[in-house]
Amino acid sequence: MTRGAASTPLARAALLGIALAFLGVFLVAPLVAVFAEALSKGFAAYGAALIERDALSAVRLTLLVAAISVPLNIVFGLAASWAIAKFDFRGKSVLITLIDLPFSVSPVVSGLIYVLLFGAQGWFGPWLRAHDVEIIFAVPGLVLATMFITFPFVARELIPLMQEQGRDDEEAALSLGASGWQTFRRVTLPNIRWGLLYGVLLCNARAMGEFGAVSVVSGHIRGKTNTMPLHVEILYNEYNFAAAFAVASLLALLALVTLTLKSILEWRYGIHGRTGY
Amino acid sequence: MQSAEMAIDMGDGRAWHRSSPKSNHRRVIPGFGLTLGFTITWLSLIVLVPLTTIFIRAAGMGWDDFVAVGLSARALKAYQLSFGASLAAGGINTVFGMLVAWVLVRQDFPGKRIVNALVDLPFALPTAVAGIALTALYADNGWFGGLLAPLGIKVAFTPIGVVVALVFIGLPFVVRSVEPVLADLGQDVEEAAATLGASGWQTFHRIILPAIGPALLTGFALAFARGVGEYGSLIFIAGNMPYRTEIAPLLIVTQLEQFDYAGATAIAAVMLIASFALLLLINLIQVWSRKRGMA
Q1: How far is A266 from chain B (nearest CA, A)?
Q2: How far apart are CA A189 and CA B30, in angstroms?
Q3: CATH code, residues B64-294
Q4: Transmembrane stretches, by residue range (chain B) (predicted)?
Q5: Do the chains contact at B191 and A4, CB–CB below 8 Å?
Q6: Cβ distance of B9 and A172 shorter than 8 Å
Q7: Which of A213, B27, B52, B123 is deepest in the core (most CB within 10 A)?
Q8: Set of chain B residues whose Cβ sits within 8 Å of the Cβ of A258
Q9: Domain ranges of chain B
């Protein structure tokens, strides 16, 4: 039989037990608590909390913000990975580090930078007010903050994947007379589709779940600038716990769906994430 | 099927490419200018220019004002909590994250795939949801809080609560950093050590630990960096008492709510400098471990 660091079956079982107990306490318990608290006042109250007007508008806003920011990040991710993987140029590693930069910035600071630019006391604040353009405390601010936070997700998934695949396929297609666009659409895109989907999945989960950055730029106007995570916070601070957890349970379901699809991509297609999300 | 048809073309194409001499070095693939130009423009507009506003604003404050707000007694306490709790949580995650990674790589058990997927839950679960769930668990009337209260241990609304939430947030960083290195190391190395008479502990600290050291350090640094800036999962469980349970990102929000842009900017600048220093450190660890791997 195999022997290793834990040489006896008993030691192996003990280590497995400790690891699972740790995961149970720190990961499973919070997840179960969300659903238990959400249903603590019964299914009727749960349903009522979800179809309430402000909750519905929060769901709509969350979907809208993700529907704008995720596609923009896909376009950026494709452009960045094409430039980085298919060509050689100086400063490439600096560029990759800069793309990853938003990961090392606190979400609150990510929101703050846009307040400093577009807020009432910000650089463009007076100009924006004079022209009646709302960015902070409005949807554009939410989209900007979300885009900053999710900026690296698609790019960092595609860059290593496209680097690994090399340039042979594209060069061959081009030499056979395909146009650049045809090559991208019919050669590159099919090659990277599962990796792209993986990046989009994680990007979307973060876009819909982001809290700190959007909290700074949102202004918490009920029914107008509250995304789902912000709506959860408001309900919770009003001691309306069951309703807060009901809305939170939708976000937890989104997380579970994301994890399931992510795992399927990993098992089926051998796609791997990079640590650091 | 479009892709199948292309694959046949590709076969021919590849054959052509291999047989052709490698002299043709001019760029065949189009779109370099377009994609790189777009990448740099978009990166500058969304990330780089907005980030520099913090430093320009902070520089405009003057040194004395900057120190007065950015390094005030209240701010220093907040940094102390954010950095101290991140350090403690990073330490806990280093030990248990390594154990979880080892179990996932070396052991087979029913439901392993589910456990493996679950490790990424903190990446997928919105931080506000994690925050209220942990608070519900560790409040005095919660499942865990109720067990700990008779022992005189308070978790929610104390610095311990901050550490608990950061353990949740940081765990996947350590597990996912260590896992591939442990898998590469192979079970045979551990078996060889055991065959040669090494005890379980000797195998661990002479063989496994040196091999996974850099990965462990990377995971710790990533978890630490994330913890320092963390906001959503902490504000519910922390208690938010100035000088006691107030984390640094919350202090920024508090200043903003009082329309004190200068105060918020100064604290943000201090935190950004700390994050960039950490990022540099993480990159250095990775360069060092790559060099070590080649030697």
Answers
A1: 10
A2: 15
A3: 1.10.3720.10
A4: 28-58, 78-105, 117-139, 151-175, 207-225, 261-285
A5: yes
A6: yes
A7: A213
A8: 124
A9: 64-294
Number of H helices, E strands in chain A: 15, 0
Q: Is the pLDDT of residue B7 over 90?
A: no
Q: Return the residue in A39, A98, A109, A228 with the most chain B beta carbons within 10 A, the one to mutate for interface testing.
A: A109
Residue partners of B113: CB distance under 8 A and separation at least 6: A263, A267
**pTM listed for this prediction:** 0.90
Residue carrying structure tokens 């390594």: B98
Q: HEC states along B34-100?
A: HHHHHHHHHHHHHHHHHHHHHHHHHHHCCHHHHHHHHCCHHHHHHHHHHHHHHHHHHHHHHHHHHHH
Q: How far is CA A60 from the centre of its chain?
A: 17
The token duo for B132 is 């209220």
- Work out the minimum CA distance from A95 to partner chain B, whole angstroms: 8
Instruction: Decide if B265 and A208 are in contact by the 8 Å CB cutoff.
Output: no
Report which residue type is found at A28: V
Measured distance CA(A75)–CA(A170) in Å, rounded: 19
Alpha-carbon Rg for chain A in angstroms: 23
pLDDT, tens only, B71-122: 999 999 999 999 999 999 999 999 999 999 999 999 999 999 999 999 999 9
Q: Is B225 exposed, middle or buried (0-12, 13-18, 19+ CB in 10 A)?
A: buried
